[in-house]
TrEMBL record:
<protein>
    <submittedName>
        <fullName>Hydroxymethylglutaryl-CoA lyase</fullName>
    </submittedName>
</protein>
<feature type="domain" description="Pyruvate carboxyltransferase">
    <location>
        <begin position="1"/>
        <end position="269"/>
    </location>
</feature>
<dbReference type="InterPro" id="IPR043594">
    <property type="entry name" value="HMGL"/>
</dbReference>
<dbReference type="GO" id="GO:0046872">
    <property type="term" value="F:metal ion binding"/>
</dbReference>
<keyword id="KW-0456">Lyase</keyword>
<dbReference type="GO" id="GO:0046951">
    <property type="term" value="P:ketone body biosynthetic process"/>
</dbReference>
<comment type="similarity">
    <text>Belongs to the HMG-CoA lyase family.</text>
</comment>
<dbReference type="InterPro" id="IPR000891">
    <property type="entry name" value="PYR_CT"/>
</dbReference>
<dbReference type="GO" id="GO:0006552">
    <property type="term" value="P:L-leucine catabolic process"/>
</dbReference>
<dbReference type="InterPro" id="IPR013785">
    <property type="entry name" value="Aldolase_TIM"/>
</dbReference>
<keyword id="KW-0479">Metal-binding</keyword>
<dbReference type="Pfam" id="PF00682">
    <property type="entry name" value="HMGL-like"/>
</dbReference>
<dbReference type="GO" id="GO:0004419">
    <property type="term" value="F:hydroxymethylglutaryl-CoA lyase activity"/>
</dbReference>
Length: 282
């Protein structure tokens, strides 16, 4: 069974012009109608760092979750953000960006890797107390542009530390779109074999022409949890100047179908969501 995570937060966060709160909520409500496993809908971070997400709490109040089967995920970058997110019963997952690159950890959360690991531990304890789950995103998980050390063994060291903290979901993130199919397969195979009790996800950024082979590589490696954004909008504004977009959800869906996977999505509502995305992301 494929877990498909739709990421409007990632699609919107780097846009320079503020999207009206009501429009954000209408779009996320439409995505909920599609029936994705999880919606990465917003973040509780500094409005100075990511001004587009300053209205996440207001957006949440406008969501129609009465019949929703989708879970909600919010990104946090520190303990204060986690405490803010945990005030809302509607949020199921707190996502934290932990980088295997020291340079990117500093750029993304203004903290060292050692400090970030302490934050992960604190958030994990808070989540366990509140009955929530933390999803740790291992950013720069397939390489980095800064010359920082990287290897599959290094990724495994980070996973080992997270396993000791009882983190149950880890999303390996190709923040700048450099992963080759061979590396994607290798890293997922090694991690899934070594830590079968952990759910590993793929948060890959990619050019459109490379999406199919990257999805197939992830599937070959044993991954069954994939993040995407309709039309491939977005990318990480903290990574480098040139954004590489998210994996286009509609392209991934076709690949899954061709491989025989059932996604249990409402096709009509998906088509409406794509139309709405085209009006928001000009």
């Amino acid at each position: 069974m494929i877990q498909l995570i739709e990421c409007p937060r990632d699609a919107m966060q780097g846009l320079p012009e503020f999207i009206d709160t009501a429009i954000k909520a209408a779009y996320i409500n439409q995505l909920i109608e599609v029936g994705f496993h999880t919606i990465d809908f917003g973040s509780f971070v500094s409005p100075k760092a990511i001004p587009q997400m300053r209205d996440t709490a207001e957006v949440l109040e406008m969501l129609d979750l009465h019949k929703a089967k989708s879970k909600l995920l919010a990104i946090v970058a520190n303990v204060r953000g986690a405490e803010d997110a945990l005030r809302f019963e509607e949020i199921d997952y707190l996502g934290f960006p932990l980088s295997v690159s020291e340079t990117f950890q500093q750029r993304n959360t203004n903290a060292s890797i050692a400090q970030a690991l302490e934050t992960v531990e604190t958030i994990q304890n808070l989540c366990q107390t509140k009955g929530k789950e933390q999803v740790v995103y291992l950013s720069m998980g397939f390489g980095n542009p800064y010359g920082d050390p990287f290897s599959p063994d290094l990724v495994a060291e980070f996973v080992q530390k997270l396993d000791e903290l009882e983190v149950k979901t880890i999303s390996l993130s190709d923040t700048i779109g450099v992963a080759t199919p061979e590396l994607i397969t290798e890293i997922f195979q090694v991690q899934i074999t070594s830590f079968p009790h952990i759910t590993f996800g793929a948060h890959l950024h990619s050019r459109v022409e490379d999406i199919n082979e990257k999805v197939l590589a992830g599937l070959k490696g044993g991954c069954r949890r994939f993040d995407g954004a309709l039309k491939g909008f977005g990318g990480c504004p903290m990574a480098k100047d040139e954004l590489i977009g998210n994996m286009a959800t509609e392209v991934m869906i076709e690949t899954f179908k061709e491989e025989g996977y059932s996604l249990d999505l409402n096709q009509m509502e998906l088509e409406e969501a794509i139309k709405l995305s085209n009006s928001i992301f000009l």
